[in-house]
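Section 3.1: Structural characterization of target chains.
Under the original work plan, the team committed to producing a structural model for every single-chain target entering the pipeline before any wet-lab resources were allocated. The record below documents one such target. The sequence was received from the expression subgroup and is listed exactly as submitted; it comprises 171 residues.
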Amino acid sequence: MRAPSIHLGVRADTDGVIRRRAVKAVAEIDGRLLMLRSATGGDVKLPGGGAEDDEDDTAVLERELDEECGRDLLHVGPLVLRVLEEHPAREDPRRRFEMESRYYDCDVSGVRRTPALSENERREGLHEVLVPWLEAIETNRAVLARDRDHLPWVDRELQVLEFLARERGLR
């Protein structure tokens, strides 16, 4: 079965394309969603990150869960959603930026180690939180109501959370 998809942005007629791929974990622990909260923006997002060209999705999930949460990936379940974002590239507005984000159901370890956050993640004050689904949705709605223009990833994460909550009968 093919995973459902969401398309965000507008396909721009440009000279070239910059493509990126990201992989995200949808993991529940004791009925709450494993998320990362930003101390600077207050938003929450699912753990995961960018993939290298030669890296498979499982390797990205293993690396990102370890780095961001200090947790081991125990099992990768099905691909539950694909999100394609398109907009003019910040690096070169004559080019189009395309990012495909893949969201997988995952089982993670209950044991936590100290995460190995990147400099940008530390600067953002990212830290793991376990959040009920509907609270995660309301958190990101409130963040967007305050600051829609400066936090473009929050809109993506909100749409993903709302879609998955509907699919799981939580809304």
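The chain has a mean pLDDT of 89.
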